[in-house]
Amino acid sequence: MSKNVMITGAGKAVGLGFNLVLRYLEAGDKVVATIRKPCPELEELKNHYEDRLTILTMDISSTASVQAAANELSKKFNCLDLLVNNAVSVSPDCDKGFFNANLDFITRTVDITAVGAMRVIKAFYPLLKKSDVTALIMNISSEAGSISKCYRTNLIDYGMAKAALNMATMNLYNTFKDEKSVNIFCVHPGWIRTDGKPDNPAPLSSYEAAEILRLLFEKKRDDFEGHRFITNLNEDYPF
């Protein structure tokens, strides 16, 4: 049975979000792709898949923008069966260490990556609740968000943002778990060539990674007992 799927951060053709959109369209689902600015490649997909692809513009750093997008979508969709929070931000100083990085950049990264995902969940929760199946929220995290496994001295803003997203996932799991109508996980998607460069040593293209995740997500839909932070291989990962 086809499902209604929404994926944030889908505006980069070589990125994971765009390729998740593509994989779900290829699987026959109806997909909502959210973007902050126009994406020509998404428009090309729209021409091919027509009514099965909805492109929704919103700025997840703005509660008003997210709520307006939710109001708009509620006029077209009666429910959402899957929400993938993929949108992320990194600062210009992401690769710098503590003494060289501008720490004022951290706030925006955390706000977009972690708080932004929560804004989206809150605004679109009424549509998730209307699903005929267990509605699933998958927050795209990273091994860089694991506090216990941290080994880096850079990626400060990114790591802090993903750790915050992981905490948000646990808090919302506790919030939703008694009703068992909405389930939630955070997932490390693997090492991916999200820049699309052939010399990138990461083993997975975004297109390959997207299909691994698509298959994994459906396996986890009704799992309310397992660990909340998992890898793309369905292995538990430490917070």
Instruction: Give the DSSP E fraction (strand runs of 2 or more residues).
Output: 15-25%
N-to-C span: 34 Å
Q: What is the helical fraction, as a range of percent?
A: 25-40%
**H/E series:** EHEHEHEHEHEEEHE
Counting H and I runs of at least 4 residues, what is the number of helices? 6
Question: How would you characterize the largest beta sheet?
Answer: 7 strands, parallel
Give the strand order of the largest sheet, numbering strands 1, 2, ... along the chain.
3-2-1-4-5-6-9
Principal-axes geometry comes out as globular
Counting DSSP E segments of at least 2 residues, the number of strands comes to 9
CATH topology: Rossmann fold
Stretches where pLDDT is under 50 for at least 5 consecutive residues are none
Structure description:
InterPro entries: Fungal_SecMetab_SDRs (IPR051468), NAD(P)-bd_dom_sf (IPR036291), SDR_fam (IPR002347). Pfam families: adh_short. With 239 residues, the protein is of the alpha/beta class. Helix content is 39%, strand content 16%. The chain has one domain: NAD(P)-binding Rossmann-like Domain (Rossmann fold). It has six helices and nine strands. The strands form two sheets. Strands 3-2-1-4-5-6-9 form a seven-stranded parallel sheet, with helices on both faces. α2 (40-49) links the parallel β2 and β3 (53-57). The protein is globular. It starts with a strand and ends in an 8-residue tail after the last strand.
